[in-house]
């Protein structure tokens, strides 16, 4: 009888863990698939030379401070989701921002309506300059009314240097 109760107890906790585990909404968040599969690429590269986990990461490299270079992905928001936890590991090397305060290496989220129109301003999760070792950036964001999808963006915005990105995730919170 004790053995049956112990097995039942273990099964209960396994079910509880599975119920609380959330699926990553981001495609290829670890950049393990070839050619940055799932991402809209504007000058980034997959790199096997500097990564947080797995075999690859994404490298965004810019030599000038006169344009935006990076990657983004648009993701549909599942129904009945109230908030999303966004997370990524980022690293910078010699990032020099342009003239504006918002320039630099950025991890930003923009919510979109059903017609892909932006709902309000983008939300910066982190903005970095200089040299920064691998840092986990995360933030729980409440979903705005009328949001249908979100764009997750990593870029050197009017900044030079290198931005490395790995283990990107967006998990629904009910």
Automatic annotation (TrEMBL):
Gene3D superfamilies: Galactose-binding domain-like. Residues 1-21 form the signal peptide. Keywords: Signal. It comes from the Bacteria. This is Carbohydrate binding protein. It comes from Mucilaginibacter frigoritolerans.
């Amino acid at each position: 009888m004790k053995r049956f109760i112990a097995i039942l107890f273990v099964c209960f906790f396994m079910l509880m863990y599975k119920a609380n585990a959330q699926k990553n909404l981001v495609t290829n968040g670890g950049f393990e698939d070839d050619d940055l599969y799932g991402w809209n690429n504007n000058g980034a590269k997959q790199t096997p030379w500097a990564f947080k986990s797995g075999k690859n990461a994404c490298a965004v490299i810019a030599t000038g401070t006169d344009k935006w270079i990076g990657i983004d992905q648009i993701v549909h928001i599942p129904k009945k989701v109230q908030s999303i936890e966004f997370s990524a590991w980022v690293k910078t090397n010699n990032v020099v921002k342009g003239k504006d305060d918002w320039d630099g290496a950025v991890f930003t989220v923009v919510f979109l309506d059903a017609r892909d129109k932006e709902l309000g301003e983008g939300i910066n999760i982190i903005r970095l300059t200089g040299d920064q070792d691998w840092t986990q950036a995360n933030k729980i964001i409440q979903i705005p009314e009328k949001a249908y999808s979100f764009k997750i963006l990593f870029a050197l915005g009017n900044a030079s240097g290198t931005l490395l990105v790995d283990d990107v995730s967006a998990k629904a919170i009910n």
